[in-house]
Amino acid sequence: MKNFASWFVGKTGEDDKHRQLILDSSKSFRKRIGSLSYIMKLNEKHGLNPDKCPDFIKSNHIMLMDICIGFLRNDTTRTKGKAAWDEISSTLKILIDLTRYRYPAPIDTIQEIAIACLNENNRIELREIGFNLVLNLMNNDVNLEVLSVLFLSSIDLAQLVNEESKGKLHFMNKSSISSPPNSLDSNWVNLVRTAEKPGENVQTKSLGELEKVCGSLQKGAKDCIFFLNKALEYAIMFEGSTRVDQFRRWFIMLKQTILYLLYPGLCKCQGAMGHDWGFRDGLPPILHYVVVKWIIQIIKTPDLNPVLMDLNGEFEFVVNLIGESFKLTESYNLSCSESASACIRIYEEWMFQNCMTEEIKNNWSEVMSKLLEYPITLFDFSQDSSSRRVNLCKEFLKMLTDSKSNGFDRKILLVCALNLSIKTLETHDPNRSLQDIIDPISEFLISLLADSIELVQISWSDYTDILKNWSIKSEFIIQTWLEKMKPITSTLKERQFQQSDLLDGWLSMLQLLGDPLKFQEKVQIKWVQALHELLVMNVLIQPQISPPPNFMLDIFFITLSKLIRQGAKESQRLSLIILVTIFSNTKCREMPMQCYLQHLSLLLFLSGEKEYLWKEVLDAAPKVLEYPGMHFMIYNFLKIAKNARVHSLKFIFYIMCLPNYYGKTKLENTEGLDLTYDGLKPIIQEHLVKCVDESEIAVSALYGLTVFILEELDAGNDEISELVTHVIQNKCLSDNEDVAITALICLQALSLSFPNLSKSILDFLISKCLSDIPNSKEKVLKSVLNTIQNWLLVNNSVPCDSALLSNLFSKLSLKLSSIDSSNPLEAEISMLVSFISIYYLNFPFKGHNSTVFHSILSDEAFAENSTSRPLHYALGNSVIFTMIPHAEKAKFVLRNQFGRFCWEAFDFMVFEPSTNSEEVEKALSIMRDAKIELDIREPPPPLQDEPLLPKLIKFIADNYPECYVPEKPIEAGGEILKMIESVEKIESECHYEEKRVDRERPQFNMGRYFIANFGLIDKLVQLQPDEKFERGLGILDSLKPRESVKIGVIYVAPGQQEEKEILANSGGSLEFQEFLQNLGEVIELQDHQGNLGGLDPNGTAGKISVSYADWQYDVIFHIVPLMPTDPNDDQQVLKKRHVGNDIVHIVWSDHYRDYRQDTMLTHFNFVIIVIYPLSKGLFRIQIYRKTNSDYGPLQDGMVVPAHLLASLVRQTAIYANQQARLSKHPNWEKQTQIRRKQIQELIQRYPVQNPQKHLVYSSMF
Question: What global pTM score does this model have?
Fold first, then answer.
């Protein structure tokens, strides 16, 4: 704005003033230099761009230089010190700026000034100015020999020659810059030498970062690197349209001069230098680092990149120069590492086709194949294996890994990986550990091979030769191999192991690491563990889609056999598991070849001689015995089982039903003994009895012994009952609570089969268990009470004698007196006493199915549509007594924790003494002896045939004095009034909130008589019925007294594997149908009054099902084939909705492969009991469980006959259901406990306030 104003008023602008002053030769050089400095500062932003040089400078270029030279020669002596340096340095910088433009200049004069500045005795700032002048002059004419000499002399490479190489290496003579200037014109030089040092040294700023890499440097070395850096930077700092051409010209000049001295093997020299000049034996790493940084900077500069990346030009030189970075010598330092690291980073750019010309991209594969040869030298560990080299190798491997992930050519990567692996293997000293790099190389190599299987042809032997040497000692390599094999194996499973390149690659990968027998012990174990995880946990765990046995055996049999015989102990164990799993989990229509079976039996026989393999041999036994012709191994397995009882049960469970099945058939064996199947019985029995004493397996052994007892009993062996009384019975007193509870459960399972033992078992439970088991063992005592209850009720046709019952009540009474009222046992004992008193000798009800456990009549239906409301009373704290209105009958509804019971009485005789029979008196005497307090009232004497009213009044006066008003003579009206008042007072006391219905009271007459006859008036407490109370009764009636259980039943047809196929079944085999009929009672849903488990009685869930009920459980089976199949629903949601919510599934599988636990996915299923039909009425049991709870009687691996199958499966399913509930809900309560609490809550919430005895009776009128 100021200049514009000056122009507007006709004045000259500031810039023009300075230009005029510069052109005025009459002015001093100092003033003209000052104005010139002003003008040049305005032009600083244009740098070295000749296209933007001002016209003033172009037209006066020579004159401006003369002004600078004249000032230096004439006016510099007028100032001293710092002022002299400022003026002189400013003038020299102007001269540098003027010489940058390629215009005519007094080269000789400027050359002299440059020489004066470059003198090695000058300060570095002045030498820098001289070097810049040389660079500018060379830019005008790079062929001037003097300038070339000055250039090379300034970059004194001899300063970096080590002591050993001095005199052997030749560089430019620096005499031209070593001697002081003789010309008087150079007095200005002397002035600046004496000036004060102006701030931080420019060299320090330039080399600060570099010294962090190479460490401290001597002055000469610093100067050399400083000027080399300046020269390289100068070559790329041009701007404008000629920038690329100028760089190309400078790069050629640098190759012929300084780069030749650095890399004589890569460049051609200029005429001034000899062919023996330069670093012939390798240049100092710091110089190479400087050059490499410069080269990489150019490669990343888009407009200059094509100059270096020209295949027919400088590309070969650049690649060779970068390749030098990977040649790390024994004495390399941090600068070497930094050079190599920088080159790896530019390689990474190239791998992703960055910083490349189109020409190179078109020849990319060929170029990259050549480029990747250079870094291989990094992996030469013959000289050293330092952490720096290792880290560089890791960096290069990471770059290769990243490029692999981004689709880099696998062929090129495979060749590179092979070459670097070979280099490492050849140069690595086996006596020195180098796992830090061997493991990453192996990881990359294995990963690359795994990912390239279907992409390129691989020469597997080349890579196996390498990896087999490294895997011997490395667990990491084994783990890497496993991780890469998993996805390949999963893909093969999906493709069902069909012949393909992937299968061939998988087989090659299995052999990639070499012979596992040559591995170190830890590594060998790791390899076998990896194979176990790969095959057993990934392939064979899903038998439906695993390959045929012979296919797997062809691949693994020899290797696994060798490991079983010669491997480490853990390797032998795991190898045996893998081999047996291949045999068993791949069972299908194709049997293993006989040669494999024979060899397997030999391996098992030999393995049986090794104690540490006994468990695996016995675990394998049941699986092996399923194959035809393998029973000759039974006796050998029994010998092993005798010495390894803890691991033997699964094998014993498999064979314990075979003696009765095969009978007197001869059992072949390897020892030539004359042995039959029937002869195995005592051996099995003895073994099971001994196993019961092994605490670790006692629970399973007890269940197994129970099944064995049932099997023997069915075979007619009556002596087997001794096992019940001598083994199982004694275990009920075990100190181990789990064992004691299991023994008691086994007794319950045996109760139906041994009615003749009822008395002795009950006597033992009452006399020993109740007496000897301390109260602290609450769970055991609860199980004892449950077992007593079971034996009393299931054998109700054989009544116990009075002494036994008397003893029971006595023991229970003692127990009650020894425990606190808050103890849960108190409720259990009370419940047992009440339950027995109701159901003993009455369950199931005569003429009724056990499904109906309590009355299903509503109060309204029972009252036969009477309009009167029933009366509700509390009888104690856990019974609600309801009187139903009826004119001719006494009707009552009794609600307690065991259910809802409707009673009616008619044609009974009031106070008939003969009703007190001998049987009743006997029962009452037993209870009296048991010290249970009962209020037993003798009936009054019978009435004589006399007028009824006087006798009735006398009866009331004798028996119910609280209701009697003495008879008085009526003498006057006042007495009558008093009697009326007395009656009204009684009526007012009997009044309560509910309106009295006087007209309907006769409907309770018969009920009143009945209650009075039983003496219950004093024990009833009237309840206030209202809407909430009635709603509470409805909730109570909906709570069933027995445990409601629902169990899913699934049928799997041959060949079915998927959930949708299985759910779509609408039928099953004949054996399955027979099993269903034996599982329970076939019921019609619409008529069934018991537990339906959510099944719709209207037919949407089918018309029929199977139900089972006893005194404790009400079970409904959700049978999938009996439910309607929706042809339009592949998921069969209706079926899945029921069976998917069941805790326990019973699966009948006619498929030739094992049922998969995850076949039917559900969040609620915890237990699966699978039944596999074997030959001629035998069935193998498989149990999957998600909890650690023990239950039985059936155990995983058992083989049972058809006649025991349904009952044992049902019992096991019920127990499993209860245990799963308890594990999921530890505070789970029985239905009887819930009903008891509900009744107590109703009684406590709705009593009549301030009850009196006579009010109860008056409420019935």
Answer: 0.73
